[in-house]
Amino acid sequence: MKPKIAVVGSTNMDLIVPCVHIPRPGETVIAKGGQESPGGKGANQAVGAARAGGDVQFLTRVGDDGFGKLLLANLQQEGVSPDSILITPGVSSGLAIVMVEDSGENAIAVVPGANGCVTAEDVESHAEVIRSADILLLQLELTLEPVLAAIRIARDARVRIVVDPAPVPASFPEELLQVDVVCPNQGEASAILGAEVRTIQDARQAAWQLVRRGAKQAIITLGADGAVICDGNNVDFIAPFEVQAIDTTAAGDAFAAAFAVSWGEGKSFQEATRFGCAAGALAASRSGAQNAMPTRAEIDARLLEFVS
Ligand code: RIB
């Protein structure tokens, strides 16, 4: 049976702008193009989890504008249940300007729009979506109140909680770490811990610190360098999958989504992390966000290549 994944989070229309390099402050660069494409960390994870083999319920808000209609239609087409996708009248849908440079690195500015209208009351009135799930998957593009409300509902119902702490808010409540798994990348781990996380050794220490601060388990994703995991007893290194990075935009979302599905299927923490890393590598090898999410067959094939 497919694991039930509840995602609470953001939905954006991405305006993808490929550039030779991301402009420095005060600089203007001529972009190579511009394209609208469905994104938003929450929606990317919902689509990623559905493609990876999850039965996905997604609580989000879009506006009653043209983007909102497109985003909702796309989510439905991807097999994400529309039951808890709410429409806010008179408000624009979330919008993200995603600049991607030739190296594959990106810089993103998000206009929250309808995402900023998701409330703790929305979450409480859809509590059953969370209570009936195997895994609750969260990121931080909404305000903190609905995210914390979701954590409390899941904790009371003993639903496992995975927090991808992206983007890291200026004031980081410790409750975000009182969860089953927290999975920051290096930059996010640095921001949470207030100390640079650059090397694998730094990541090992960071994973321990996140566990000491309350997470049952921690994963530090290292992009092209793999991941470090801490299960509360040991710290382990997960080797990277080779990748020709085209666009790293939603690689972290693909990781979190695939990890959640695999862990929800009953795989070990380590196996699920490897599955997530395979998905992240595949997403980085394509451009776009939701469009870049790999299917189950693609992730399985990538894992097999790695073993053989
Ligand atoms: O994680 C990538 C996402 O961040 C993009 O799709 C963009 O919408 C921003 O939310």
What does this protein look like?
The protein has 308 residues and is of the alpha/beta class. It has a single domain (4-22, 33-307), classed as UDP-N-acetylmuramoyl-L-alanine:D-glutamate ligase (3-Layer(aba) Sandwich). The chain has helices spanning 41-52, 66-77, 120-125, 127-131, 144-156, 186-193, 200-212, 251-264, 269-284, 296-307; strands at residues 4-8, 12-19, 35-39, 55-63, 85-88, 94-101, 106-111, 135-138, 160-163, 181-182, 217-221, 227-230, 235-238. A 9-stranded mixed sheet has the order 5-4-1-8-9-10-11-12-13, sandwiched between helices. Strands 3-2-6-7 form a 4-stranded mixed sheet. The model has no long low-confidence stretch (mean pLDDT 96).
Secondary structure layout:
Blueprint: E1 4-8, E2 12-19, E3 35-39, H1 41-52, E4 55-63, H2 66-77, E5 85-88, E6 94-101, E7 106-111, H3 120-125, H4 127-131, E8 135-138, H5 144-156, E9 160-163, E10 181-182, H6 186-193, H7 200-212, E11 217-221, E12 227-230, E13 235-238, H8 251-264, H9 269-284, H10 296-307
Parallel strand pairs: 1-4, 1-8, 2-6, 4-5, 8-9, 9-10, 10-11
Antiparallel strand pairs: 2-3, 6-7, 11-12, 12-13
The structure holds alpha-D-ribofuranose (RIB).
CATH homologous superfamily name?
A: Ribokinase
Biggest β-sheet: count, sense, barrel? 9 strands, mixed
Query: What's the CATH topology name?
Result: UDP-N-acetylmuramoyl-L-alanine:D-glutamate ligase
> What percent strand?
15-25%
* Topology, number of strands: 13
Please tally the helical runs, counting DSSP H or I stretches of 4 or more residues. 10
Shape: globular
- CATH C-level class: Alpha Beta
How many structurally independent domains?
Answer: 1
Q: How far apart are the termini?
A: 28 Å
Residue runs with pLDDT of under 50 for 5 or more positions: none
